[in-house]
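Researcher: Next entry in the queue.
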Amino acid sequence: MTVPHQVLATFGVCGVVTAISPGRNPWRSTNTLLVRGDRSLAIRRWEGKQAIERMFAEESLLTVLSTTEFRDFAFPIRSLDGRGHVFTSSEVAWTAYELLTGVSPDALHPATPQIVGALLAKFHSASAQLSQHNLRSSRLVALPEALTRLGLVATLLSNVRLFSGLRSLGQAISDNLEELVILPWGLIHGDFVLENILVSDRARLVDFEFARSDLRLFDFAALSAPQRHDNGSFLIASPVFLDRLVESYQCTTSSGMQLSAAERRALPLIAAAHWSFVADDLARAKSRHLPAALDVLCTLIERLS
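Model: Structure for this entry, 305 residues:
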């Protein structure tokens, strides 16, 4: 990916510009370029109507998040005219962020659950102050439609395991919907996985494009399969990993923000719902990662029984 000179200049990058290798960290995305000139930035390209809508959602959250005491995220860089983004056409926009260094945590490292649980607790404590900023409505009410579309996928793939699991999940959500929708809400990251975390002197978050107002359990649900391997498959978290993560969250947050017993009981169900949305999004995008996401979904549904 090449960043137009006008974009670099608008974000204050002048002189000789060098691309930086991201290594094993969240900046590996094909639509993000790390540049070093007289200042070092991560510059992201957004293309298409849906992507640009996500860009505006992220920009809204980061603007209000910057007003809190939470500082463990990549701060957006304003353009020279004070905007948070630059358009180079009606379908292409660019944003810039401070360049963070570090690597993504490894799910198999014993310290990772503690680090990630503490970071999530800090983020939720800050975002709870911003719950009036409703970036998006809950996705939970849209689950039946997602399950219907995935049912068609299961039929096309002749995947009996998936088809049977989707029916079980739909029934479980329907039976428990009244209890689920009254669980604690807040502004969530929406894609709280290890590849969106950078660890150096401390852990910090990037990539808020899926931020929305929703059940805070959805951020825990993403960590049910916290890491994607280079071959596209997902590492499914063990019960021990999740227990240690929740323990770290509980120890870091205030008593009023700790997960309730009802939330801990509902987490496996919300995890399956979250990965239903992930699989549905990948199916509609015709992504090559769909089979791996379906494997995660089937495993999580089977854990419900």
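Model: Residues 268 and 299 are 11 Å apart (CA to CA).
Researcher: Noted, moving on.
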